[in-house]
Amino acid sequence: MFLDKYINEHGVSSDYPVFEDIYKDIMINTKDLFLAQFKDGEFNAVDIAVKYLAIENYYGLNNYGFNLYNKLQYYRTGKNWSERFKNLIKSFEKGYDNNSFIDADLNYSIHDGAHRVALALFHNVDELKVRLFNTNLYRREYKFDFLLPYFNADELSIIRNKLNELLSKCREPYYTILWPPAYNLFDEIKDSIPKIESGVEVLNNRIIKLDSNLLKKFIYDIYSTDDIKKYKLDLKNGYMINSINNSSLNSPYPISIMKTRIDIPDFRVKPLNGNPQSKVTMRIKTNIRDTYQRYINDYHYDIMMHMTDNNKQNKEVEKIIKKVVR
Questions:
Q1: In which residue ranges of the chain is CATH 3.30.70 found?
Q2: Is the pLDDT of residue 2 over 90?
Q3: Which of 47, 175, 171 has the alpha carbon at shortest distance from 109?
Q4: Fold assignment, 174-324
């Protein structure tokens, strides 16, 4: 495929700290993969929205999707792919082919497999197999401006509306958790989060209270969704308890749980597992820790807050929260 040839000609990237091979095979949440298609703040996979409209047309949900698809494919490739795509749509009814990979670079930018991503979104497939190639080469341009010479105003409006619908569908809330050592800063931190990054909004906030035993279990359960080593988690728990003991807090201890919308997660490849990690959540955590750690009793790194990195973690953390929030 193209990325194999490109790497053979130009070499692998040095930005990924884990593997030196040409590629690494991983599973990625479908919604994360779709949201990773931003480049310089603009969505660079508008073709997926057009392909989604064609799928809807195939199933009788509109009568124009394939006309738009054929126009896009003709101007991009000079070929008519209708029958080929219809065969793929039909084959997908038997289930997603687990031997089929989406080819992407280290930006999670899709180089091959956009048709399958559109089908996965339509059929609500949770995860996709991605062959992550060791290069930072973005896919060719598929931003909205690319469509302007080829579609009329009504067609552009249809495509834009479908794109916005898919983006809304994929933007699951992230979870921000403030731990008891930061209890006297809960409101201030909540109010500061949308000011740190644009396109970020705190949707709601809930305070729960847990006794010491439930608190420890909750901490370990939440961080089990991450790749933190056991000994580091033991230290984190010990430092948190020490900070609580040196404060005026009594059991049960307060925890702030916020649902947070992030419009453009701006993913990077996370070391060790290759999963997407939102650079927006990383910057928010760094800003809050740098700003407020001086106000925390016996502060040690990371006893103030936790924030999920991607949609997979969002789902796992949501299940954990539901067990303690009645």
A1: 174-324
A2: no
A3: 47
A4: Alpha-Beta Plaits (3.30.70)
